[in-house]
Design a protein that fits this description.
The protein is α/β, with parallel strands linked by helices and 271 residues long. The chain contains twelve helices and eight strands.
Length: 271
């Protein structure tokens, strides 16, 4: 049976997901989109061949609804959708910090909800998407969600209690690497390199290091030790990183991101 999937609030991540699904073999005719602006909806139709609809039409027509609006807009969207969503529809949330119970309490009894935290490398098909089941989601619902998000990268199932930690580590994770590259580029300029050369050196080093982490099976400590010669340049650099508390700062930063995700979940900020 043909499955229709609707992406509601189609921003950059939502569009990346649509594009990945089309490349993965989904028929554009089975993909519906909603957008706040009519010109944005038409742009998506032209670019991907998908069908723009209203939120209510998506709720009535699609078998799976993927909600990609901002967390603070989710309550308003659910109020609009709830009268139109039958309890056999799968609802997938991509909103940071909002638990599945928030959706289940606003939708028909028994509606399956799956929570997903993906990240911006979805734009280049290298996302890490973390998937958690709500109280009514089945194995088939989880497998279907994995199929969708697998079109733009890797997927990982975790208990929902671990979602806040995953948001801190992976959802926000690309920003930490961009921040590090920014700092290293500035250091390269200080050391006398042109910005473009410093950038190329750092980016390729990052790609190579990430590939080694993924493919070698070695612990990162072992890989670091392989670069760290006695009394060499690398150990002197690492000593300075430790002296400046970089490891402790990273841990504190991740804890702060996790705590903010928890605040969103508890309702401390408007959803």
């Amino acid at each position: 049976m043909t499955q229709k999937v609707a992406v509601l609030g189609t921003g950059k991540i939502g569009e990346a997901l649509l594009s990945g699904m089309v490349r993965g073999g989904w028929a554009p005719a089975d993909l519906l989109v909603t957008a706040r602006r009519a010109e944005r909806a038409e742009e998506l139709r032209t670019r991907h061949g998908v069908t723009p609809v209203t939120n209510a039409e998506a709720a009535k027509t699609a078998d799976t609804l993927i909600l990609t609006v901002k967390p603070q807009d989710m309550g308003t969207l659910l109020d609009e959708l709830a009268p139109h969503i039958p309890s056999d529809r799968l609802v997938i949330s991509g909103a940071a910090g909002i638990p599945t119970s928030f959706f289940e309490s606003r939708l028909a009894e028994g509606t399956p909800v799956v929570r997903v935290m993906t990240n911006t490398p979805a734009l280049v098909d290298e996302a890490m998407s973390v998937i958690s089941a709500g109280s009514h989601a089945s194995e088939a619902d989880l497998a279907h969600t994995e199929e969708i998000f697998g079109s733009v990268g890797k997927t990982l199932r975790v208990p929902e209690s671990q979602q806040d930690a995953c948001t801190a580590l992976s959802g926000s994770g690309p920003a930490y690497f961009f921040y590090l590259v920014e700092a290293m580029t500035d250091a390269g300029i200080l050391l006398g390199l042109p910005r473009d050369k410093a950038h190329d050196l750092i980016v390729q080093s990052a790609i190579g290091a990430a590939t080694m982490l993924r493919d070698s099976g070695e612990h990162p400590v072992k890989l670091r030790e392989n670069v760290t010669s006695p009394a060499g340049t690398t150990i002197n650099a690492i000593r300075e990183l430790e002296n400046h508390g970089v490891r402790a700062a990273l841990i504190a930063a991740l804890e702060a991101a996790r705590d903010r995700s928890r605040e969103l979940a508890s309702g401390s900020s408007n959803k």
